[in-house]
């Protein structure tokens, strides 16, 4: 029998990482430049290369798993669809009023994020539901028709519909969608608030629907282009997308839940880290540090489990994952792996303001035009140009020769734009910029450690992404972290993580009932309906429902509270008692107190369903060979001739720095205050001596 | 240990503020009343063994200074009578450090063994503590005894044992015992969380080293504040602002601040402010103090730790018996508005020194609406505290849909109000043309309308109707606020900004609350026509408003600027302004 293959593809702003595994568990990796004008082109080129290189029959590709930054970039760059919103009459400003709170105090120069739908495209329809879902004012269909007319005139590409209390009755939203669909045709993307998030709280639901509508058409076009490209090269395997919660879903489902793709790539990297430490039982308290071309991201993994959240704000500049700090971005209420992100990566532009202050990012040169030294038209100096100037990365080629480096061009840009105007020596300026970038990126790490009262010195850092291992030792030094792991395939680790992920979907049934007033047969009924919905969805997506794992849980609170706790429970036999007891205990654990007299309210029933898909990993195929030569590197005391070796040159005993490990997929810098060795599984371990 | 290691200092600093944030999170997530859980009118903090504040949750700036005063009373009264398991409670403005009766303080001394390690501090606005109106904020109260239950500083737990008599007394004196007792439990839980967090920090670094770092933190904050003040020019700057006044025929109430900047210190003297009044807007000094610190802190771009150290270079004074330092038994239930006006007054003084960092007047601070009645067999209370607008800045417009700069509170989800009370919100949005005109426009006012499904009693506290939010450097004032009761037949009745009695809404009536618009910055005739047009396209300024307020003529059909007509209109408007 000939082999079949699964392929993971992670698109970053700069590089597209590809990992391929056969059914014997052998992994091959590739790194190609991203093509932001049409990302699918880069994917196709990369896939074609890998298929040709290994002589794979495209028909033997059994699955594609994909992560993309398209949704995030769309929001960060305000390049989403022209979006309209239709709300209950009297409430079109709910989107812009938000929850009023902002994430900073004492800053009178604050600007709040611009709404994704301008006021003139926020229209209203007369209709009103009561909290129990009963109709107070029937939907005025003429209002909807008039709104459709405005949307057509304004060439709106997507519409979000969000009516008050629609979580309790979706009829008005459904009818509105029908009218809009008739008037606007299939080309316009429509998202209903209660469909995407059937939960109480109008602003959060409206915002989630608006983000989904804003990125929806972009994702739809992207999905079409991707499917087309793959068909062209003869791959007709199902395509799966990584969502922000760390699970995967079908491409078609991701078009409907486009907002769920926002932290797609970062989630894949964190999942890969969690699998790495779980599988190996090593020190399970980890901070993951992922740096690519555009951003640096950190997440906390304690006892082998990644921290999660169900409220996320995209586009908040730095996303510090503390729950009280809200209001700086666009809220999405969906399951998320809790990742802190800051706009500093290899492509970040180095700039000088009128007062002579140097800044790194948040603007990025991305892949096109890219860093100056890549010679693709970039003219503004970037952090990558600083790396080349310092000798941190290869000054001739990268990614095993797939990218040529024009080091002199990078140095010249840095000299002209930064060091000459400052009257500084180039090497001194480059060191200063590196230290500035390091202090910026440490904020992402601090956001998941010191900001939560955790001392980073109690954690190991897993560094990955194209640039993570380049700066990991400097970051660790700055924070007093002593232990770093650079895993195999670190440069394409998120792409690799895609092959290690399972299908994961969540289904919610809003209930809002007092547990003491629930009919005895209510829970089993709800459970059966949720299960039916899940099975229908899995079947529709072509998954084997026989393999599915179902996890029921309930959101409970004391009557009068506003925040629920999620309590797992199988709900068998309609036994609410066990759930109640679980809630009392969890309330005591989380909030430090309980009440045995106050009524308990069941807010939502939830079903999380997983289908195991993770490929078994046995070994990594040898990477493409390439030449390595020693080079001068500036660690702060001027250039020192430094050894450049391959990963395989390391032994199980520590080798003192300075030296540089050049792999096909990334470069790992071991500065003079560090030493490194190889563990039994091929991961690099670095010990850093505190400064 | 003598050397302070900067990384450790930062870990401890962030560790402390993350404990304070975690307290805030626990309080919010387990609270019962919408005031606490949705609006987030509460604060959390940690104090050191000397009662100095060392961290505050990301909650209300304007509550920052309330903890130090309560701490002073605790240390004076119980300094030698404190044991593990004690928890203190008070809400009394007189002799205990409180501000008004709804704000209950719950503080817990934290012990490492027998040794005091610090204090956990919380304050939360409780939904009802009795008195003449639901919500316990009767603006027409004249003595504190009319306002509700006074709880002098006392132990609510003694060595871990609850003071049952106190709990029963509270339960018997509130219209909403479930919410009040539930919120008190949430406050105690927040204190216990802080206890765990602080002890693990102290144990990690050792009590002695920890103390050294706390001192370093205060020194660091103080140095940063002094550096900030040193950058300002020396001089004496006066600001004045007004509250509209009380009842159907209001007389303005003046607030005057004399700000003296001398090298690295600032003194703020409120002499010249009106005397205390026979209504509940008298304002215990800790609130003006907090408002003053907030205004000054806004001038700094530095990331100053929220601790006692930064307060040191600033002195605040108000004569006894004035509105900002009232004498017993002045009522103070509705005093909050005064704190926001103090912020505005100081901002106007500072705008004379550094206009580039100042901000035009905001909506006026939270507008209060408290409505109550009986629903499904129990009493309900709707407590609304509505904010929403910033004035314009030197280099940018104001903001609509944001919390007042001296507060950081939220709005209640409409769906939650309607799910729990016989009240329907029928409108929540912006008011076009309400932002003060200027080169930079003030933020728009908000409007929120409430339909009563059954009879209800309600009280109000607004402001900024006769004295709307100020503009800066020629910028126009924001539009005035309004309280309107709309009868079933659609007829409208204007209610006072600070009415001296309560009202009854009949089922089917609608109450409309309109905040004030933000003040503008600079001359409106200098605003680029393209920016005026953008506001018109966004339906934030009307075509009529563009001509009237900005001298920009826009064709209502094509939405294009008529440049010739604009030039002529602006020239004649400029002449009128000179005459």
TrEMBL record, chain A:
InterPro entries associated with the record: ATPase_NBD (IPR043129), Hydant_A_N (IPR008040), Hydantoinase_A (IPR002821), Oxoprolinase-like (IPR045079)
Domain of life the protein comes from: Bacteria
Entry annotated with the keyword Metal-binding: no
Keyword Electron transport carried by entry: no
A GO CC term assigned to this protein in UniProt: cytosol
Gene3D superfamilies tied to this protein: 3.30.420.40
Domain (Hydantoinase/oxoprolinase N-terminal) ranges: 6-182
Domain Hydantoinase A/oxoprolinase: 205-506
Alphabetical keyword list: Ligase
EC number: 6.4.1.8
Annotated GO MF terms: 5-oxoprolinase (ATP-hydrolyzing) activity; ligase activity
Gene Ontology terms: biological process: glutathione metabolic process
Cited PANTHER family: 5-OXOPROLINASE RELATED, HYPOTHETICAL 5-OXOPROLINASE (EUROFUNG)-RELATED
Protein name stated in the entry: Acetophenone carboxylase gamma subunit
Organism: Oceanibacterium hippocampi
From TrEMBL, chain B:
Enzyme Commission number(s): 6.4.1.8
Ranges that cross the membrane: none
Domain of life: Bacteria
Residues covered by the Hydantoinase B/oxoprolinase domain: 5-523
Keyword tags: Ligase
One Gene Ontology term, aspect cellular component: cytosol
Molecular function GO labels: 5-oxoprolinase (ATP-hydrolyzing) activity; ligase activity
UniProt-listed GO biological process terms: glutathione metabolic process
The keyword Ligase belongs to this UniProt entry's keyword annotation: yes
InterPro entries: Hydantoinase_B, Oxoprolinase-like
PANTHER family named in the record: 5-OXOPROLINASE RELATED (PTHR11365), HYPOTHETICAL 5-OXOPROLINASE (EUROFUNG)-RELATED (PTHR11365:SF23)
Designated name of the protein: Acetophenone carboxylase delta subunit
């Amino acid at each position: 029998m000939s082999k079949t293959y699964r392929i993971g593809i992670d698109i970053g702003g700069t590089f597209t990482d590809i990992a391929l595994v056969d059914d014997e568990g052998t992994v091959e990796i590739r790194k190609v430049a991203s093509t932001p004008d049409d990302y699918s082109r880069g994917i196709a080129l990369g896939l074609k290369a890998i298929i040709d290189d290994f002589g794979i029959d495209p028909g033997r590709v059994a699955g594609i798993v994909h992560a993309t930054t398209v949704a995030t970039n769309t929001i960060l760059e305000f390049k989403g669809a022209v979006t309209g919103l239709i709300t209950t009459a009297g409430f079109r400003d709910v989107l812009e009023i938000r929850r009023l709170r902002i994430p900073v105090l004492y800053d009178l120069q604050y600007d709040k994020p611009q709404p994704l739908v301008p006021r003139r495209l926020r229209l209203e329809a007369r209709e009103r539901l009561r909290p129990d879902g009963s109709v107070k004012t029937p939907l005025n269909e003429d209002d909807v028709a008039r709104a459709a007319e405005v949307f057509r005139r304004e060439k709106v590409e997507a519409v979000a519909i969000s009516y008050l209390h629609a979580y309790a009755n979706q009829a008005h939203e459904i009818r509105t969608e029908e009218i809009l669909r008739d008037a606007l045709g299939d080309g316009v993307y429509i998202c209903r608030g209660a469909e995407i998030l059937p939960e109480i709280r109008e602003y959060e639901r409206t915002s989630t629907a608006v983000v989904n509508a804003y990125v929806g058409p972009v994702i739809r076009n992207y999905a079409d282009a991707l499917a087309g490209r793959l068909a062209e090269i003869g791959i007709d395997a199902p395509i799966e997308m990584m969502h922000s919660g760390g699970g995967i879903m079908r491409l078609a489902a991701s078009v409907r839940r486009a907002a769920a793709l926002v932290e797609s790539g970062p989630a894949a990297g964190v999942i890969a880290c969690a699998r790495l430490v779980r599988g190996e039982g090593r020190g399970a308290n980890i901070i993951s540090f992922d740096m690519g071309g555009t951003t640096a991201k950190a997440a906390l993994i304690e006892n082998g489990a990644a921290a999660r959240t169900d409220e996320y704000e995209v586009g908040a500049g730095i996303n510090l994952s503390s729950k009280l700090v809200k209001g700086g971005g666009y809220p999405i209420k969906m399951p998320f792996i809790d990742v802190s992100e800051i706009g500093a990566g290899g492509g970040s532009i180095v700039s000088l303001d009128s007062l002579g202050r140097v800044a790194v990012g948040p603007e990025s040169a991305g892949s096109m035009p890219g860093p100056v030294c890549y010679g693709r038209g970039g003219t503004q100096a970037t952090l990558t140009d600083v790396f080349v100037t310092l000798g941190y990365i290869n000054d001739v080629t990268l990614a095993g020769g797939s990218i040529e480096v024009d080091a002199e061009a990078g140095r010249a840009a840095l000299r002209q734009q930064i060091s000459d105007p400052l009257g500084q020596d180039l090497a001194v300026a480059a060191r200063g910029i590196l230290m500035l970038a390091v202090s910026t990126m440490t904020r992402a790490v601090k956001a998941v450690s010191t900001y939560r009262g955790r001392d980073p010195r109690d954690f190991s850092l897993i560094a990955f992404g194209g640039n993570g291992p380049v700066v990991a030792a400097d970051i660790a030094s700055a924070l007093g972290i002593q232990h770093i792991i650079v895993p195999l395939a670190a440069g394409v680790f998120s792409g690799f993580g895609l092959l290690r992920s399972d299908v994961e979907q969540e289904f919610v049934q809003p209930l809002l009932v007092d547990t003491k007033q629930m009919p005895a047969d209510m829970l089993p009924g709800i459970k059966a309906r949720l299960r039916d919905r899940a099975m229908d969805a899995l079947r529709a997506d072509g998954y084997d429902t026989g393999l599915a794992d179902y996890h029921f849980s309930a959101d409970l609170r004391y009557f009068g509270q506003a925040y629920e706790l999620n309590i797992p429970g199988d709900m068998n036999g309609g036994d609410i008692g066990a759930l109640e007891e679980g809630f009392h205990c969890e309330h005591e654990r989380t909030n430090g107190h309980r009440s045995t007299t106050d009524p308990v309210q069941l807010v939502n029933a939830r079903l999380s369903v997983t289908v195991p898909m993770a490929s078994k990993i046995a070994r990594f195929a040898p990477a493409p060979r390439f030449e390595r030569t020693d080079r001068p590197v500036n660690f702060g005391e001027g250039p020192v001739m430094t050894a450049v070796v391959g990963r395989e040159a390391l032994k199980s005993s520590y080798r003192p720095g300075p030296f540089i490990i050049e792999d096909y997929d990334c470069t790992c810098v071991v500065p003079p205050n560090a030493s490194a060795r190889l563990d039994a599984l091929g991961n690099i371990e670095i010990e850093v001596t505190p400064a | 240990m003598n050397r302070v290691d900067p990384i450790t200092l930062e870990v401890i600093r962030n560790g402390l503020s993350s404990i304070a944030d975690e307290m805030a999170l626990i309080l919010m997530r387990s609270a019962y009343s919408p005031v606490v859980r949705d609006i987030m009118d509460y604060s959390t903090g940690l104090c050191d063994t000397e009662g100095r504040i060392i961290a505050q949750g990301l909650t209300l700036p304007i509550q920052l200074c309330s903890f130090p005063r309560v701490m002073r009373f605790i240390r004076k009264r119980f300094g030698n009578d404190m044991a593990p398991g004690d928890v203190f409670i008070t809400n009394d403005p007189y002799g205990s450090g409180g501000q008004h009766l709804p704000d209950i303080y719950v503080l817990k001394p934290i012990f490492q063994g027998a040794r005091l390690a610090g204090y956990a501090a919380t304050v939360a606005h409780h939904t009802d503590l009795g008195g003449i109106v639901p919500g316990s904020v009767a603006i027409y109260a004249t003595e504190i005894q009319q306002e509700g239950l006074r709880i002098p500083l006392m132990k609510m737990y003694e060595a871990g044992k609850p003071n049952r008599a106190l709990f029963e007394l509270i339960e018997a004196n509130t219209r909403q015992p479930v919410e009040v007792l539930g919120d008190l439990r949430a406050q105690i839980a927040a204190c216990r969380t802080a206890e765990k967090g602080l002890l693990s920090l102290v144990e990690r670094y050792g009590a002695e080293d920890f103390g050294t770092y706390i001192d370093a933190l205060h020194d660091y904050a103080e140095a940063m504040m002094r550096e900030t003040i040193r950058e300002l020019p020396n001089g004496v700057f006066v600001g004045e602002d007004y509250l509209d006044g009380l009842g159907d025929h209001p007389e303005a109430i003046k607030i005057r601040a004399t700000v003296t900047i001398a090298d690295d210190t600032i003194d703020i003297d409120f002499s010249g402010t009106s005397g205390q009044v026979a209504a509940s807007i008298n304002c215990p000094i800790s609130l003006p103090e907090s408002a003053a610190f907030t205004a000054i802190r806004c001038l700094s771009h530095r990331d100053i730790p929220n601790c006692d150290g930064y307060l040191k270079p600033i002195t605040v004074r108000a004569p006894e018996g004035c509105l900002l330092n009232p004498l017993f038994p002045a009522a103070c239930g509705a005093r909050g508005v005064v704190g926001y006006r103090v912020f505005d007054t100081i901002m106007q003084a500072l705008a004379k020194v550094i206009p580039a960092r100042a901000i035009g007047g905001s909506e006026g601070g939270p507008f209060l609406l408290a409505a109550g009645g009986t629903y499904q067999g129990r009493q309900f209370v709707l407590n609304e505290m509505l904010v929403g607008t910033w004035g314009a800045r030197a280099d940018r417009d104001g903001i609509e849909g944001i919390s007042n700069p001296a507060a950081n509170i939220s709005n209640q989800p409409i769906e939650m109000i309607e799910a729990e009370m016989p009240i329907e919100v029928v409108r929540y949005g912006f008011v076009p043309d309400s932002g003060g005109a200027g080169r930079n426009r003030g933020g728009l006012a908000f409007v929120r309308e409430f339909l009563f499904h059954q009879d209800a009693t309600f009280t109000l506290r607004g402001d900024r109707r006769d004295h709307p939010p100020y503009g800066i450097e020629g910028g126009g004032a924001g539009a005035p606020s309004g309280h309107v009761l709309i009868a079933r037949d659609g007829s409208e009745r204007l209610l006072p900004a600070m009415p001296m009695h309560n009202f009854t809404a009949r089922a089917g009536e609608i109450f409309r609350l309109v905040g004030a618009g933000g003040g503008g910055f600079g001359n409106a005739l200098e605003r680029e026509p393209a920016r005026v047009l953008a506001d018109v396209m966004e339906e934030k300024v009307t075509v009529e408003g563009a001509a009237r307020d900005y001298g920009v003529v826009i064709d209502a059909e094509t939405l294009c600027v008529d440049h010739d007509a604009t030039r002529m209109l602006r020239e004649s408007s400029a002449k009128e302004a000179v005459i």
